[in-house]
């Protein structure tokens, strides 16, 4: 599995690392090794993780980290969901190895931190049918735009659009292949 993930990520020059279902599927250190090896091979690494897996991936180095404010609270990185507390946690994550940090906040504006500073992106106000999968769609949109050559700061627009499209459907499967 490790070799297949590494080969595919290196071939694509971009990989998304996210958590499997269940705590015992992969040891957290797998994420550190994979992030480090992918970046050493020239691939960009986008991560949607929390907890021990996030800590391990940070140690390997990341191009983009996407995390929700709820995950920050659950991990004990913030005591409250206030913008100042989230921004402090984002600075710490950036210093720990994430070049760009994106924190989603449900229907509230997401916050991005990179070397240029903070950016707030407000999603469109839509009639929400189901929020499941919106964060995953956000991450996928960011990665897809980056694969087309956009910077993470530019790519977040497509990510927000993908997440917004996701919440107006009653299923996490928004797009289907023809």
Question: What does this protein look like?
Answer:
Helix content is 46%, strand content 21%. It has seven helices and six strands; from the N terminus they run αβαβαβααβββαα. Strands 1-2-3-4-5-6 form a six-stranded mixed sheet, sandwiched between helices. Strand 1 (14-18), helix 2 (29-40) and strand 2 (44-48) form a beta-alpha-beta unit. Helix 1 (2-12) packs parallel to helix 2, helix 2 (29-40) runs parallel beside helix 3 and helix 6 (134-147) runs antiparallel to helix 7. Mean pLDDT is 85; it is low at 174-178.
Give the strand line-up of the largest sheet: 1-2-3-4-5-6
What percent strand? Answer: 15-25%
Sheet with the most strands?
Answer: 6 strands, mixed
Q: Give the number of DSSP strands.
A: 6
What is the string of helix and strand elements?
A: HEHEHEHHEEEHH
Structural class given helices, strands, pairing? Answer: alpha/beta
Short characterization:
46% of the residues lie in helices and 21% in strands. It has helices at 2-12, 29-40, 51-60, 69-74, 83-95, 134-147, 152-167; strands spanning 14-18, 44-48, 62-68, 98-105, 108-114, 117-121.
Keywords:
single chain, six-stranded mixed β-sheet, 7 helices, 6 strands, 46% helix, disordered C terminus
Layout of helices and strands:
Elements: H1 2-12, E1 14-18, H2 29-40, E2 44-48, H3 51-60, E3 62-68, H4 69-74, H5 83-95, E4 98-105, E5 108-114, E6 117-121, H6 134-147, H7 152-167
Parallel strand pairs: 1-2, 2-3, 3-4
Antiparallel strand pairs: 4-5, 5-6
